[in-house]
Amino acid sequence: MRCDLKKKSSILKSLRTGLLIAISIIVFAYAFQVTNVNFETTRSEVRITQLTRVLRALAKPELVEYDTTEEEISSPFYLPCPDNGEIEGIEKNTNLAYIQTSVICASPKETITVEGFNMPANIKGPINFLAASGVKRQLANFETNSDGYFSVDVVVPTRQPVAEAQYITATIRTTTGLPKWTETAKATWDKIIETVFIALLATTIGTAASIPISFIAARNLMKDSTSTPTSTALNIIGFPLGAYLGYIFSKWIIDLLSPFEKNVFITLIGLIISGVIAYFSLRKGLPSEDIKKPTNSVKIQRFAFIFIAGVMAILSIILFGEFTKLAGEALENLLGPIGFLGYALFQIGDITSMLVPALTAIAFGGVIVSVFNKVGLSLQDNLNTSILKIINIVLSTIAGAILFALVMAVINWFYQFNNPRISLYYPVIIGGFAGFILAVIAKPKHLLPTGFIIYTITRTILNALRSIEPLVMAIIAVIWVGIGPFAGSLALALHTIAALAKLYSEQVESIDDGPLEAIHATGANKLQTIVYAVIPQIIPPYISFTMYRWDINVRMSTIIGFVGGGGIGFLLQQNINLLSYRSASVQMLAIAVVVASMDYVSSKIRERIV
Amino acid sequence: MLEIKNLTKVYEGNVQALDDVSFNVQPGEFLAVIGLSGSGKSTLLRCINRLVEPTNGEVIWDGVDVTKAGPDELRRIRRQIGMIFQHFNLVERSKVLTNVLAGRLGYTNPAMSLVNRFSKKDVEMAYKQLERVGITDQANKRADELSGGQQQRVSIARAMMQNPKIILADEPVASLDPVLAHSIMQYLEKINKEDGVTIICSLHFLDLVHRYANRAIALNAGVLMFDGAPKEIDDVKFKEIYGKEAERVG
What number is the ipTM of this complex? Predict the structure, then answer.
């Protein structure tokens, strides 16, 4: 019985193997057809000649050139021979270089021999027929031997008969002076610098943005974060509300400050004062240690201080933006050759001003969320289940309505329904109903896996973003900010965020849990656990991934110019399209050198740090 | 001071780790928790400071139910409960001093921790704790450069930074050799006697229990099998705790 079973399974097994082999043969056969595999073309002589030509051109990058001087050595020649046969012979200085034709006159299409004497040794050059009209025609090339002698047979060209002497000349080209960079090499140098800096900016911005995201996208940090239905609903209501208030608030402050924004001194003084107030009220509001449980009045006092600190911080950020803009502008004119420092300062100020409303919105949203969270927790602790359930139902109906309305607003932005029934009423009704149902079903004190939901959403967005090639992103960025390196930097930065956040978060997921547990046990909160137990463990892999990404970004930025993203790719594409392969070869060489040296440097840095 | 009432923990997949465990701990006690691997010792210790969320039951600490505490309350409770682990659980890439200072995190303001700042007082205290366990000279080394015994001493110093009223030690000597095991146990004994810190310590070896503990509880498959003085563990009790096939060693 057992034997039978074995036999049967072995037959099945071999059948399965055979089937697998057959399928793979079919798959590869189809792949050959789809990809137009045709080895005949690889043997075609025309193509091989072309390939050889291109490869040889590529092997000779147009890197350096020399100044050349030309010296023409001529000998008079009569075409045709004069009728009277009188030809003025001329004396040649046989100490210098000279050429000698076998005959002094000939008819068209006759073959004559041209000899050269005392020429520079081992050089090449053209032999021309210089007609009386001044038109040159190349007859042949000469190549001197080590004694500076050559002898070439040339065919006399057909020309209008002229009585006076015309000339046969040999041109000696000599290079003089030191080799100098070609224009191509100079342009390549400019663009390769641009390329490296595109990669640098993209990597820096990408790394800075992806570190916080990576914590949100790490399963082990997020999976334990849960919240009650009450808090969740309050958060969904509170964050958009807070964000909106924050936005309005920042606009209001910016408007309030607008009369002073062009005055360097007022902005500077304001910056210092608001910064100092923010710092000290923060110190007051956040004592470095609290040994005892704070009383309510102490809590309110602290909250007031933190609030003042927050407002002052927003104020100082706005003023910082204005001040750096003004200072940058002034410095750019003042500093002359290092004016780019002023330019950078101005841009930093500009970014700051641009980000203020968003930052304020997020900060206000965060504050409202944390206050609402506390409210939710105390409701939870102090109310009995049935009242809590009613509150939950009300809150989650509102939350569902808000959530759906917000999502629909985004969809409406893309598709422009512009019909309040579709973009507002339906989502509010459906969302409210969904929230209502959820709250009715869920137990009021049941914990929702909020952390896990946020983790999943973040991961999904990252994966979607990562699947879009930087080249495609660059096309969109070019539309936004115009052709140039800035577009390339933006596209690469965005892709870097998506790719690094994922790599980083996987590193967070693979850290040792022991220290986390230990730090947690001391009473540390989530933030402290990250600073003391997570970050020390992830520094080496983070650095190594950043270097790796820097590598990739350099490589990507070399071709991002193909779609207008700046850098060396633009030159390369241009030269390939112009069929000037020797110039293209310079750019390829530059790319190879830069990529290889980046590779080397990054591996050295990794070795040292890890 | 610590009252465990009907504590039950069921892990995902219906694994019963603790089954209706109740006992009291008096201030100043050195309580040993014994039992086979997987009998629920670690879960029990972790339920006390809620590193593991209990399924049922109460943990009353100084009159407060730990299992119902909110985040702020839990933080204040946890910082009075030091913890020592079998695998030390130091942050290996950080300096020894930083590891010790981390014991102060429950008292420090989170915003201050963000910029890696501890008060001068805390740093002085950290050196004092390192001096007590005799490794002041290692303060600026990376934690993973230290030997196992030294690492466990660092983690004792870390626990002591919390000014704990109680220390939970989860098999603190299981990955150390016998000589080091005694030295670590002596440090715990010293903390217990000199500072009056209550100690709950899970242990594998009965001779250690006899030598250091003044009371022992035993778990078998999550059920409390024994609660009394270590010398009361006779052969019958022993078989009950460790199973019929077990034999006494040492």
Answer: 0.92
